[in-house]
Amino acid sequence: MPSRRRLASVLARRHIPLRTRRDLLRAELRRRIRPTAAYAVSCGPGEVFLSQDDYGVDWESLKFVVADDAYRTDHTGAVVLDVGAHKGYYGAYAISRGARAIVSFEPETGNVELLERAAATYRARGIEWQVRQVAVGAEKGQAELHVMSGSWGHALHPPETFAQYEVGTERVPVEAMADVLAEVGSLVPEGAPLVVKINVEGEECGIVLETPARAWERVTELFVETHPWVACTAADLAEYLAPAGLSEAPSAMPAVLRLRRAGPPRSGSRSAPS
Known about the structure:
Layout: H1 4-11, H2 18-33, E1 38-43, E2 46-51, H3 55-67, E3 79-83, H4 89-96, E4 101-105, H5 109-123, E5 128-132, E6 135-137, E7 141-148, E8 166-176, H6 177-185, E9 194-198, H7 204-209, E10 221-225, H8 234-241, E11 246-248, E12 256-261
Parallel strand pairs: 3-4, 3-9, 4-5, 6-8, 9-10
Antiparallel strand pairs: 1-2, 7-8, 10-12, 11-12
């Protein structure tokens, strides 16, 4: 749970819209006085939700995106691919900063329930937001998702230290990243940016390094949250994607690798890689 000092520091940040700060304060008061299953927080034209059961994790996740500006960039007119969407906080943030459409991939049932509920508030205002209850990996198939007591820790291949937090498993479908990039890339209007965010609790090495570099050529900007227990480094990911025209750019957060394209996407890169 946020301490009073941490809550006050977020409420004092003027770059956060007043309605969002008001709803964060209201959620904290309601949680203490009259708890409910979820608390709505305004973000741009719609709302996202903090769950009562996972309030501390959800609050920190929302803070990371909205207050800390972890994925700060120009989203104007962008189609956004959100891999590991959690409860939709980044998608809502991107829309509030001008994104035209969101495609979210999130495998865990509890997260998807509030993700879909949030997306519906934006669709009601004419904004395209697709939600897929699917994991993303290097190859298409099925996998066991290890469900953790904290909703940001669900993972396909968690480190051994996560065992103490595991509360169950879910059998989930997995889509190959190359296919996802080709599909979403085909939805992007000519000249519009494609922004991709990946936060997959340690799957980033396989997703990036085992997907052909040319599959990334339609991507305008890529954010990858890196994790300390994985076998690859941010430098490995950046080096691998350099032939696709993506190069490292300053990031708002040390754990988030940010890669940008200097020029327009390469022609012919919309087709699925062989």
